[in-house]
Amino acid sequence: MRKLFLATAALATLGVTSAAIGASHAEKNPAVEARQSLMHLYAFHLGPLGAMAKGDMEYDAEMATVAATNLASLAALNQMALWPEGTDNESIEGTRALPAIWEEGSDIGQIVGDLQTATAALAETAGDGVEAVRAGLGPVGGACGACHKAYRASN
After folding, report:
1. Residue 109 confidence (pLDDT)
2. CATH tag, 29-151
3. Residue 126 buriedness (CB in 10 A; 0-12 / 13-18 / 19+)
4. CA-CA distance, 115 to 72, in Å (whole number)?
5. Is the sign of the CA dihedral 155, 105, 120, 41 positive or negative?
6. Closest by alpha carbon to 29, among 93, 77, 74, 75?
7. Shortest CA distance to 30 belongs to which of 80, 79, 82, 78?
8. Residue 119's pLDDT is what?
9. Is 7 a residue whose pLDDT tops 80?
10. If DSSP states are collapsed to H, E and C, what string results for the chain?
11. For the whole model, what pTM was predicted?
12. CA–CA separation, 125 vs 76, rounded Å?
């Protein structure tokens, strides 16, 4: 009888735990998590480039080239699956994406194209010196800023 009780208690605990884990995962949208992870990767690779451009970090041609190449690779990813309709800040919690991204006439495609062009150009020149990094970061920042200004809610 005791073994039956322990087995039943263990199964009940497992069921409650599984339900709790399932509920916590159900609250998070995988597309939102993936695109936020992508933004973290952008920031990770922009970090050393920005630090070099500001003079907060010594210029390192290899590091600059790797970071810029990774940015270009990230920007080149097809991100369509990360942006399904209904994953804006008015529809779900946990995102700052504005509904305007999905509206007719949105220029998000142009902005993404600008980011791809800017990161590809930066990848080509990042190893040429800190001045090249500074020059290349301007258009990258412009593309990032254009998207964030138009399509991301403020804190």
Report:
1. 95
2. 1.20.120.10
3. buried
4. 8
5. positive
6. 93
7. 82
8. 98
9. no
10. CHHHHHHHHHHHHHHHHHHHHHHHHHCCCHHHHHHHHHHHHHHHHHHHHHHHHHCCCCCCHHHHHHHHHHHHHHHHCCCHHHCCCCCCCCCCCCCCECHHHHCCCCCHHHHHHHHHHHHHHHHHHHHHCHHHHHHHHHHHHHHHHHHHHHHECCC
11. 0.81
12. 17
Q: Retrieve residue 66's tokens.
A: 């790797």
| pLDDT per residue as tens digits for the range 60-85 | 999 999 999 999 999 999 999 999 99
Return d(Cα 111, Cα 121) in angstroms, integer. Answer: 15
Q: How many other C-beta atoms are found inside a 10 Å radius of the C-beta of residue 66?
A: 16
Tokens 């504005």 appear where? 98
